[in-house]
Amino acid sequence: MKRIEAIIRPHKRAAVLAALAKQGITNLTVIETLGLVRQISHSRIYEPASPDKETQTGLIPKNLLLLFVEDSQVQPIVDLIQSIAMTGETGDGKIAVSQLEELIRIQPKAKPPEPD
Questions:
Q1: How many domains, in total, are found in the chain?
Q2: What is the CATH number of the domain that holds 26?
Q3: What are phi and psi of 60, to 5 degrees?
Q4: Integer Cα distance of 31 and 76 in angstroms
Q5: Burial class, 85, CB count within 10 angstroms (exposed 0-12 / middle 13-18 / buried 19+)
Q6: How far is Cα 116 from Cα 111, in angstroms, rounded to an integer?
Q7: What is the largest distance, in Å, between two alpha-carbon atoms of the chain?
Q8: Is 24 a domain residue?
Q9: Does the residue 44 lie in any domain?
Q10: How far apart are CA 51 and CA 83, in angstroms?
Q11: What is the per-residue pLDDT for 51?
Q12: Distance CA 59, CA 88 (A)
């Protein structure tokens, strides 16, 4: 299994999620976050304690998508995210793929059948 982490622009989230759902990928986590970036052309720059206030901290909103997928799904998912999230400007995001040693689900174990 692989872990895919994709950092994308917030306004691209809905389109990326819709495209992933169309491909049957619905098990993922979305984290709204702030990133310290070198985007000098970005018009809204936020401070963590006050997202309404424009500052010069260099922190801007991003979304982090986290997916755990089978090896065969990696390239199609990466290609899909990249094609939809790309605007052609600096700051479109990043995609990281890493090997996953083990994935443990937090869920109740199946109960054994009741004896007759």
A1: 1
A2: 3.30.70.120
A3: -130, 155
A4: 22
A5: buried
A6: 15
A7: 71
A8: yes
A9: no
A10: 29
A11: 55
A12: 20
Candidates 85, 83, 105; CA nearest to 1 is 105
Phi, psi of 16 (to 5 degrees): -65, -45
For residue 112, the 8-state DSSP code is: P
Which residue is listed with tokens 């010069």? 56
Tokens representing 96 are: 């990281």
Cβ neighbours of residue 68 under 8 Å, at least 6 residues apart? 1, 2, 3, 4, 27, 100, 103
Instruction: Please name which of 99, 55, 97 lies closest in space to residue 77, comparing C-alpha atoms.
Output: 97
Q: Provide the pLDDT confidence category of residue 110 given band limits of 50, 70 and 90.
A: confident
- pLDDT at 49 > cutoff 80: no
Which residue is associated with the tokens 């809905």? 14
- Which amino acid type is present at position 56? Q
Q: Is 24 left (phi over 0), alpha (psi -120 to 50) or beta?
A: left
